[in-house]
Amino acid sequence: MTFLSKMRDVLGLYRQVWRLLSYSSRSLSILVALVTLGEAVAAILGLWLIKLLIDVLSAPEAFEDGIWEIYLILGGAGLVTFIALVVQSYGNLLRSRQGMMVADYIDREIHDRAIEVDLGFYESPAYFDSLQRARQAGPQRPAQMVSGALVFSKSVIFLAAILVMLAGIEWKLLPVLLFTVVVALIVRLYFTRRLYQWQYERAQLERRASYFDWLLTSDLHAKELRLHGLGGYFRNVYSNLRRDIRAQQLKIETTKSFAEIGVAAVGAAAFIGAITFLISRTVAGDFTLGDIVLFVLLFRRAEQSGQQCVSSLSGLFENQLYLSQLFSFLEVKPNIQGPAEPAAIPRRLERGLVMDNVSFRYRDADHDTLKDVSLEVPPGRLVALVGENGSGKTTLIKLLTRLYDPDSGRITLDGIDVREFDPLAYRRLFSVIFQDFAKYAATAADNIWFGDVAHPRDDEKVLDASDRAGASSFLRELPKGFDTPLSRIFDDGQELSIGQWQRVALARAFLPNTRFIIMDEPTSAVDPRAEMELFDTLRDRIGDRGALIISHRLSTIRHVDYTYVLDDGRMLEHGTHEELLAKGGRYASLFGRQAAYFK
Q: pTM for the complete prediction?
């Protein structure tokens, strides 16, 4: 990559960062830039007053005719120093405020992308690596980059002014100063690139360590960790991962420290050499004592400004490297998008949902999860889907709700391809209870209301949904009733059994006024009597919605209108309960085996 192309990349990132800052507050960004420039001007003015004071003091008649001039310059220097401190403090306050606003904005942007991306991104290690790198890059780095650019600009202006003043004393010493600055810059940029490359490659290692940290500290697996004695093993795995990460980083940091010590030694030698040269010239009568004092002050300030320039420029390149990862993540667009002019959702459904010869394969899989699958879910009808684990039932749900698009075939709603609808509007047609349903650390009422957050919380509707799911009886008995947090990680929280949680999730699916309800093993943790009661009255509970029910217990779904049997991604057979028994196929075999347990 050439220097010019590298600079174009940096300038492009600056444009993106300034765009982010303008979203947080354009006026604040301008004010920060002005205050930073003011800091540089105040510093230069302070140096100029010092030079002026030394020139006056060096004059033979300084304490005779120029005493008031000395006091005037001293007063001016004191005033400038005070103003510089005020401007610096105010600038720090503004930059802190700006950083907070940008951090919040970047957080929102990352959350928005995480919500918008297709479900397939969550099933890809590359997605989690990119998210990890985006987290490493933000949300502070955009503000740091702009702050670094302002500090770099201030340092360059300040350094240029010092060099001009040094040139007035002895221009031959300028190459010595510039050499020390350039060497420091090269070393800093080299290790910035090396450290970034290592951190880029360790993203998955960091995620593995975070996973074991989560296993050790969350309540989800706390019982098994204690019963099987896994805590010590997972702790050691985590410690070993962190030890490897730490050792690799310390190796780079150690090499970097020795290199910086070398650079400091070069700078010290240059300073001593320059002072030795000036003293020898002073002895020869070419310079005055005031020239040496001024040179020492300027050289030290130039050295500090040079280091600040190097540090700022190094920080810019470091932030540019990380921000490229952040902006790459923020530019991710979902593959599932609606057309420019989406079709209107039919007001009244006639035929309902139809899958027509649908096939689908997950990314990087070596075979189709679904192959030429056809299925219908008419409005107001109860449809069952039967199949063993791994047959593709959950994948079928994801396709019906358009969390994925099929590779071939199509899915229609009243004859209209669902890809013609806006995805969000189409998904609002469904209430879904997945087998791995969510258990939110919120109140019982909120856990149910989360099924329809597009509308204000209506406690009567929440109670009605809870009644229909059979959850009200135990929720009312909680310490604060429906206002009890359903997690012990917060004060006054309570934990439910898995069967009770399943009733809450079912209530969440019953709450919204949708066209279809999909239930994936909705009663797997519910006792058989309650399960039978639920399915016997399911038509009354769901109203006129079409329903697709997945269940391993065939006895509970024998009264549905139609049943499909899925096996290894293919639709093996379909029909009513009586028709499938008469065929003597897979359904009849499964039903017979289960019925044998109850004889």
A: 0.66
